[in-house]
């Protein structure tokens, strides 16, 4: 870390007087800038997922709306919509990452999205991955949900990927294609390569990219003391995002942290490097863009959850850009 950045981090840390509790899914790469921010704020020597600055526990937005001890939570926008439907105090305050998911098909089954008509597509129903599958097959292939069969499969974080995981299922031909977040899709590609099975990758970030956001609640943000701590943490996270998104790639220290801190990766730095280009470390909050995504996606979530879709005006209250603006003052 550059000396100037260390000094800036040190100055920010001094304004944090208590430990924030953050709920994040520890099995996804997207959460790791939060952990890097905590480690660097503590001089880079902290172990685990906690320090005097913040503690990260496994979870997400479901935790922050049910447990008042949780101050921040990170998740994909799908889960935020699911929780916001019944908990209008939820707020998106920062976008940590955007990930252009990949759909991988056996080339013998299809080399175009339209060619997947009548095929079996593996994913996890009700998740951002399932929404991605529907969107890319609709927007790129012109297919509706009734034109293919969705098959439930499991993620895989490390080889060998066992029976029931998407890489295993696609490599053995029990499904024709699979769409999921990383590193499952990279391991799917690796499994097909090892088996000598030709494959085709479908990816279009303009059709769908996961927006992995940091959330709080209106109650937490209305508390002057707690808000001050959250603002200070956003300053730390902003600096961490700059390093994650460096044009020359992540440092060895960041790759090592990700590989050792994401559940199931077992220190596999080669796998982290392989999936890094799929991730964009946003480090910002583009409210209009996020709102457009929420409005379109909530129509799908509402259908899956059998409820009425929320209006654009209602969804606009899910986004609070004032916290980041406050963190960047001066």
UniProtKB/TrEMBL annotation:
UniProt-listed Gene3D superfamilies: Periplasmic binding protein-like II
**Could you tell me which InterPro entries the record lists for this protein?**
SsuA/THI5
User: Which controlled-vocabulary keywords does the entry list?
Assistant: Signal
Domain SsuA/THI5-like: residue ranges: 60-200
Does the record bear Signal in its keywords? Answer: yes
Signal peptide region:
1-18
PANTHER family given in the database record: ALIPHATIC SULFONATES-BINDING PROTEIN-RELATED
The protein's name in its UniProt record? SsuA/THI5-like domain-containing protein
Specify the species.
Sporothrix stenoceras
